[in-house]
Specification:
By secondary structure, the chain is mostly helical. About 80% of the residues lie in helices and about 0% in strands. Helix 2 packs across helix 3 (about 45-70), helix 3 (about 45-70) packs antiparallel against helix 4 and helix 6 (about 120-130) packs antiparallel against helix 7 (about 135-145). The longest helix has 25 residues, at about 45-70.
Length: about 150
Amino acid sequence: MELRETLRADLVVAMRSGDAQRRDVIRMLLAAIKQVEVDTRSELDNDGIQDVLRKQLKQRQESITDFEKAGRPNEVASELAESAIIESYLPQMMSRQEIELLARRIVDEMGGADNKMMGQVMSRLMPQVKGRADGRVVNEVVRGLLQ
């Protein structure tokens, strides 16, 4: 099933069950998808929709950090709940060990570890983990392997 259809079906379920928070988050996601489509004048496929969801998730994570610094626990809890709902529509993230396995394989294929190879390793690894791993974690893993 297409991600957009899943969101719409889940919106109906949330409305019928009275789950206001889930309903509001899904409506916000659908509105963000529609806005990107209007801005780009094209219809998004599943990958494009996932990119929009990742951007929304990243905004929530940044808000959580800001609210924690400001000492606002109610807003932190709200953003965490919204993040959990958004994450349920994204593919599961890779573990650090899975990323390390892929990175180690690429480093072995390239013939050894050298700090100068960082860009080459990253350029081969990122397409394999796109959407399934945080770039910062991938960078840390590769940097650790090459040192």
